[in-house]
Design goal:
single chain, 332 residues, alpha+beta, five-stranded antiparallel beta sheet, four-stranded antiparallel beta sheet, 13 helices, binds flavin-adenine dinucleotide
Length: 332
């Protein structure tokens, strides 16, 4: 049952930041994640500060330099369907289209998607785990089949957002506003690694809000794509996935970002895969080599070893698809 809380409906962003200074205040966007956490007693809130009434937080516009600015309250559906998002950044439109179900995409927002809490069943369940201020991660000796392969340190969750890996691949930034003013943070630096603080998901300070997400103009010859594997063909989180952003000169990879989803407590940039393909002509052999490099340093837990070949296969397939789509012989 939901414990009682106060409900604030600020009209502008400054008022929202001011209300977030109240004791026990939390941001409410679409509520698809937050209300479940409150109902299940994962944590509590004394005040919910709704962004639904704050002007100017939704919508997608050009940044004047060939990129896009996406308001934090823009729904996931709007992103998935927006013609410019689809044209400029297929990886982002595809990732948005993979979030949950149509209902969740209509209600959920991009800001909420980036700041959502992890899905670990120990964290969500009745366990005093490290992330909730306890002393241990129950996944270490427990049911860890959906936990991480990389970056675990003390807590072994996987980061749940589909859009975050896509935005890391695109080198996007978030613009925030908080009690200490506004700042820009690369999405690649937004999420907190457990080695630094296992009780926080993001580097946002108390009372700091994501206001908008800025996606830079696509690089010349950008090929981008998102792939997600889940345990069933209905709404679910990624057990493995990847976001690719490859700047191609013909079939040669000029520059690249390869970001793994469902692999680590934060969107996981595979520097090994990037290094394997950067500056080279992408073909099937190189795709297999890069996919092997991406999982070489994986540290599987007792029950998630199956994820190693799964990631290798997913990445190889996606890099092969990229190679085929840029091969003029195959396109004609
Ligand atoms: C059944 C189910 C399936 C799901 N499947 C997926 C999935 O496949 N992929 C996926 O990525 N997600 C999934 N989700 C998670 C979630 O619904 C979505 O990520 C959604 O986009 C969250 O957005 P929201 O606006 O509803 O966030 P809310 O629930 O309102 O907020 C989520 C968190 O972010 C904080 N927050 C919200 N907006 C801001 C902001 N602007 N600045 C700072 N903090 C903020 C809130 O305080 C809260 O802690 C699923 C959820 C459910 C219940």
């Amino acid at each position: 049952m939901l414990a009682p809380f106060a409900y604030a409906r600020p009209e502008d962003i400054q008022e929202a930041v001011a209300r977030l200074a109240d004791r026990g205040a939390r941001v409410l966007a679409g509520g698809t994640d937050l209300l479940g956490c409150l109902r299940d007693d994962v944590f509590s809130a004394e005040t919910l500060v709704s962004l639904g009434t704050v002007a100017g937080l939704s919508g997608i516009r050009g940044d004047g330099e060939g990129g896009l600015v996406i308001g934090a309250m823009t729904t996931i559906s709007e992103m998935a369907e927006h013609p410019e998002v689809r044209r400029l950044y297929p990886v982002l439109a595809q990732a948005a289209g993979e979030v949950g179900s149509p209902q969740l995409r209509n209600q959920g927002t991009l800001g909420g998607n980036l700041c959502q809490k992890p899905r670990c069943w120990y964290y969500r369940g009745d366990f005093p785990c490290l992330r909730k201020g306890g002393h241990k991660c129950f996944a270490v000796n427990g049911e860890n089949q959906y936990h991480c392969l990389f970056g675990g340190a003390s807590c072994f969750i996987v980061h749940p957002s589909d859009t975050a890996p896509a935005l890391v691949a695109l080198d996007a930034e978030v613009q925030t506003l908080g009690p200490r003013g506004s700042r820009r943070i690369p999405v690649a630096g937004l999420h907190m690694p457990p080695a630094e603080d296992p009780t926080r998901e993001t580097v946002l300070e108390p009372g700091e809000l994501v206001v908008e997400i800025r996606v830079p103009a696509p690089a010349d010859g950008l090929y981008s794509a998102y792939r997600k594997v889940r345990t069933r063909r209905a709404w679910d989180f990624a057990i493995a996935g990847c976001a690719l952003a490859l700047a191609m000169d013909g079939q040669r990879v000029r520059d690249c970002r390869v970001v793994l989803a469902g692999a680590a407590p934060i969107p996981w940039r595979s520097r090994e895969a990037e290094e394997a393909i950067r500056g080279k002509v992408l073909d099937g052999g190189l795709a297999a080599q890069a996919a092997g490099a991406a999982v070489a340093a994986a540290l599987p837990m007792s029950k998630n070893g199956y994820k190693v070949p799964l990631f290798r296969g997913v990445l190889e397939e996606e890099l092969r698809r990229a190679a085929e789509s840029t091969d003029p012989a195959r396109r004609s």
